[in-house]
DNA sequence: CCCTGATTCGC
DNA sequence: GCGAATCAGG
């Protein structure tokens, strides 16, 4: 084993996984491990699911059970006994329910922002959004979630030497109340997050909300795309 | 083809 | 427990 799953690495894995990073990105960030390793570990940790392209369907069928025995390093021998699924316990699937019907609130009139329906992430829930005073999109207090942190750049092999990130806000310090805006680049010794108090109801502080949620300007009045974290040139 | 995550199974 | 190989959907 080249690199073992230390507590920190596991914590990072969790954070990123839950944060919406892809397995590849997490693997890059951790360094020294493959995407598969990350996924495998994630599953072993109990994490799983999340937008996966190959998961939505529900026709497990039974064909794949015999579709792999070949092509492997050694004699495939054979699959584990087809232990049929759980025999007893029909389990009356409890009605999940829970789509927490978000109250059709029209944004927090903190400063008298007008509300306007804007496409937001959340397939089922009504999109409650409005423009904030700074011109950034404002979400309904009820449906904010998934930080979807900006994706880190791709990197292969470089293992993070050690997380000596002094008192800066590290990945592990993130919580619901501090700004998650990334400062610097992942992998750098001084990579950290903004860390200041968030704009209530948002994943970022007021300043970064303005950066994250940009209002759409009228056609023709568009300004050149401002730099975003990770995707482009350094932002700091 | 690329990407994704899921799964299997030898180690 | 780990992760390469493999599968499978987008």
UniProtKB/TrEMBL annotation:
It comes from the Bacteria. Residues 85-103 have a biased composition (Pro residues). InterPro entries: GcrA. Transmembrane segments: none annotated. Residues 67-84 have a biased composition (Low complexity). Residues 41-166 are annotated as: Disordered. This is GcrA cell cycle regulator.
């Amino acid at each position: 084993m080249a690199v073992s799953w230390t507590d920190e690495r596991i914590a990072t894995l969790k954070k990123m996984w839950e944060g919406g990073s892809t397995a590849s990105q997490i693997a890059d960030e951790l360094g020294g491990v493959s995407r598969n390793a990350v996924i495998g570990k994630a599953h072993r940790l109990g994490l799983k699911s999340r937008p996966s392209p190959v998961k939505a369907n529900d026709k497990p069928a039974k064909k794949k059970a015999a579709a792999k025995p070949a092509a492997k390093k050694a004699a495939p021998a054979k699959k584990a006994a087809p232990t049929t699924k759980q025999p007893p316990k029909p389990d009356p699937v409890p009605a999940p329910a829970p789509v927490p019907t978000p109250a059709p609130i029209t944004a927090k009139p903190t400063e008298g922002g007008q509300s306007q329906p804007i496409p937001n992430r959340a397939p089922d829930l009504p999109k409650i959004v409005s423009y904030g005073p700074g011109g950034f999109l404002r979400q309904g207090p009820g449906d904010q979630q998934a930080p979807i942190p900006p994706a880190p750049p791709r990197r292969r092999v470089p293992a993070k030497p050690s997380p000596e990130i002094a008192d800066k806000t590290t990945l592990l310090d993130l919580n619901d109340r501090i700004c998650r805006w990334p400062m610097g680049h992942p992998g750098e010794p001084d990579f950290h997050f903004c860390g200041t108090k968030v704009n209530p109801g948002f994943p970022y502080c007021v300043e970064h909300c303005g950066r994250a949620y940009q209002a759409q300007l009228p056609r023709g009045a568009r300004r050149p795309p401002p730099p975003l974290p990770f995707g482009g040139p350094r932002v700091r």
